[in-house]
Specification:
The structure is a homodimer. Chain A is an alpha/beta fold. Chain A contains 5 helices and 11 strands. The longest helix of chain A is centred in the middle third of the chain and has 11 residues, at about 135-145.
Chain lengths: ~220, ~220
């Protein structure tokens, strides 16, 4: 079986923006971006990993949220997905945004130049790793035990892996909201068509799912 | 977690026909129905369980074929999906259409009034069970170890479970081919709208995915 690097459920605005530039503890996606608007489609599904109550839709959008953990053995994320800090770690108190039960349930490789010991929350272990995308992917593949690796974002990290030619499949949900400024995944999805096939799938929820896979 | 009964990747013609009436060893779907026409969309995907070569598409259709085994702990099938025999078993030589490596990888409950000992091929064990749909579902749920149960078909079996109100979600791929006569799932998908939500999702492959979930 091929061991893929997969981007899943990555949400951008209609103008391609995934996050604001002014990330903080209070505004994980930056002050200009309300993540509720980008993620509303996912939160409405039965399989949304953060769902705590029963219910939720089980139509098209639910296929994407329940695919989140299917055959995934590790995640790679950028440091800015892990937390709002910059530069050397002052201490090790920050353990991510996700509380005591992070939704990953696998090893997670946080890309950073600043060393920090690994730690475990529930069944998720966070490792802090330097190196370029290819090196980090090699480590994540080894940890994934034959399963696929999820590239969790943020947007800067995804762009680095796309530029390095390492992404095998990518699901981007384009929300019907325009943001104007912020950290941009693309000017247009067509920028990737030289290297990827693309299925464009409108959902009844209003988002347009974009499914890329390598040519 | 809710333990669902799910119909997945069930293929019908544009006029709702899933199989011919004259099933035989040579024509598992009946003489009038070429399964290649109904299943072509699935066979083209990377995750088609019967795929033996690399390649295949990883767009929308692939989400459905790779969802086939995600969080499934047991399958229920009608006897006519298992084989072309009718009436009491003459012997136990027939072990299904799928060779030594059936694509199920879980316990499979074959509904039949005619007793037969269980047997195992690779990691799939076939059990032969009487009883009505609710009784068979109870046994399959217990065997599924907390995971969902797949309702594998054929069309007569799916209709029985729908009539008993036991199906939680159902994915039907409607192929762009008209068959005229045979075993019919429905006159129109609208027949289910009193009990189910429906997402209708056209694919670039030409099939139209119909996703039902309980109201």
């Amino acid at each position: 079986m091929t061991q893929l690097l997969r981007v899943q459920n990555f949400c951008v605005s209609s103008d391609g923006i995934a996050a604001g530039e002014d990330q903080s503890l209070e505004h994980p996606f930056g002050r200009a971006v309300d993540p509720g608007k980008l993620f509303a489609w996912a939160g409405a599904t039965a399989s949304w990993p953060n769902r705590t109550d029963p219910g939720g839709s089980r139509g098209l959008d639910d296929y994407f949220t329940r695919d989140f953990s299917c055959n995934i053995g590790a995640e790679i994320m950028g440091r800015n997905k892990f937390g709002p800090q910059r530069g050397p770690w002052r201490d090790h108190e920050w353990r991510g945004w996700w509380g005591d039960e992070p939704p990953f349930h696998t090893p997670v490789f946080v890309m950073t130049h600043h060393e920090r010991p690994s730690f475990t929350l529930s069944d998720t272990t966070f490792h802090f790793v330097g190196g370029d995308p290819a090196e980090v992917l090699a480590r994540a593949r080894e940890a994934a035990g034959g399963k696929d690796v999820r590239l969790g974002g943020g947007v800067t990290t995804i762009r680095r892996f796309l530029e390095a030619g390492l992404v095998d499949t990518m699901h981007v949900a384009v929300a019907p909201v325009k943001l104007g400024s912020g950290l941009r995944l693309w000017g247009s999805p067509e920028e990737l068509l030289d290297r990827y096939h693309l299925d464009v799938v409108p959902s009844s929820s209003g988002v347009i799912h974009h499914l890329f896979w390598r040519k």
